[in-house]
Amino acid sequence: MKRKVIIFASLLFAVMTALSSVSAQSPTRIQFAKGKSSAVVKGTTGEYGVTYVVRARSGQKIVLDLSPSSKIGIKVETNGRYGQSVLLREESGGHYEVGLEENGDYTIFVGSTTNRPINFTLTVKITKLADI
User: What DSSP string describes 76-97?
Assistant: First the structure.
């Protein structure tokens, strides 16, 4: 009986490790070409979505254009001095602008809302936040 429990526990651990490595995709850093403030990313969401990271400064804004406009969602978040903050969460593609209060990395997650892979185009632009 003890041997069966050990085998089952080992098998369960192996399955959990495999599942976590499949769904835990490491983020891709978006880098702009020299002298440019925007980049275009084309990809597919896959089953679990894709994650990008972009560095920006306080006083800037991230301008995002995501297509298609349906069956896809986007989320922008940061882990700043006050902890993790979700700055944008939309269940459709489109044009979005996110003002930034801190220097650092910002995570952009693109995922399917239908649990099926969706091809997408994401334009990311960093600009100066206009004075109000």
Answer: EEEEETTEEEEEEEESS-EEEE
Please check whether residue 78 is in contact with residue 85, taking contact to mean a CB–CB distance below 8 angstroms: yes
Distance CA 49, CA 47 (A): 6
Please tell me the least confidently modeled range out of 7-21, 46-60, 104-118: 7-21
Contact 125, 37 (CB under 8 A): yes
- Calculate the alpha carbon distances from 110 to 9, 97, 106, 132 in Å: 35, 15, 13, 30
Q: Which CATH number fits domain 26-128: 2.60.120.380, 2.40.30.10, 3.30.70.1230, 3.30.200.20?
A: 2.60.120.380
